[in-house]
Amino acid sequence: MNPLNHVAIIMDGNGRWGLKNKNSRNAGHKAGLLTVEKIIKSSIKQKIKHLTLYAFSTENWRRPKKEINFLFNLLEQFLINRIDDLHKQNIKLKIIGVKDFSLKLNNLLKLAEKKTSKNKLLQINLALNYGSKFELINAFKLLRKNNDKINEKNLIKYFQTKNIPDPDMLIRTGDTKRLSNFLLWQLAYAEIFFEKKLWPDFNEKDYIKLINKFKKLKRNFGNINE
Ligand code: IPE
Ligand code: IPE
Ligand code: MG
Questions:
Q1: Residues with catalytic function
Q2: I need a surface site. Which of 12, 51, 60, 220 has the fewest CB within 10 A?
Q3: Distance between CA atoms of 7 and 5, rounded to whole angstroms?
């Protein structure tokens, strides 16, 4: 059985779910937040140490302003209402991506990170305004600026995922098979699961099914495994 330390998720399909069920994409984002809560709970039960959630990509700025505002409003409300409880549950919140939002949201994010920084049970890495290409280019710029030798160890110390182990498994819901600029380097050896269900329909049972599949896989890392 493979040990499972880190699960990364591309939470896709909110918009389609909202249109289908409530005639509004934003209703899908709201419903998606309930799935986030369920998956956090289940990750704790499964003794997972890192849960990385792709919530907003550097490309998502191309969406209509109304949808972007709704998403960030939802996030603000989540932080205001839920951070104390997450903290009590010994959960650490870390943002990966550039904190380039309203002053209010930037501050809420910084406060949430600071408050939970010593927690140990589960680390949630929230990818927000995250793009892997930006992360890589930025890291190379820092390598050059500091005159560092180009090698793996030096490069990854400039990643936004510094100190976070690489994901063991990636799940993308929403019946789409692409990476959408997510953790391109870090997923080099992840086991990838594409799930047909839209994110708001994804539940604990689906999650555990995928985890059990992952645990039974042969992971070779280039070696042979007989
Ligand atoms: C993913 O769901 C959530 C975010 C990008 C914030 P989408 O909003 O991409 O949903 P679909 O893919 O349009 O259904
Ligand atoms: C990826 O989903 C980003 C997040 C889930 C936050 P998208 O729905 O934005 O991806 P594309 O644009 O369809 O590839
Ligand atoms: Mg999508």
A1: 12, 60
A2: 220
A3: 7
Locate 54 and state its tokens: 């792709």
What is the C-alpha separation between 8 and 166, in angstroms, rounded? Answer: 9
19 C-alpha to center of ligand 2: Å? Answer: 16
What pTM does this model have?
A: 0.98
Closest-CA residue, ligand 1 atom 13, reads: 15
DSSP for residue 60: G
In this prediction, residue 213 carries a pLDDT of 98
Q: Which of helix, strand or coil describes residue 131?
A: coil
What is d(CA 6, CA 218) in angstroms, rounded to the nearest whole number? 17
How many angstroms separate the alpha carbon of residue 101 from the centre of ligand 2? Answer: 19
Distance 139 CA to ligand 3 centre (A): 27
Class of the 6-131+166-216 domain?
Answer: alpha beta
Among residues 154, 159, 132, 131, the alpha carbon closest in space to that of 143 is found at 154
Considering the chain, what is the average pLDDT of its residues? Answer: 98
List, for the chain, all residue ranges whose pLDDT scores fall below the cut of 70.
226
Spatial contact of 4 and 217, defined as CB atoms under 8 Å apart? no
Pocket test for ligand 1, best of 9, 10, 16, 35 (most atoms within 8 A of CB): 16
Of 2, 42, 17, give the one whose Cα is nearest residue 208.
Answer: 42
**Which tokens sit at 29?**
């984002």
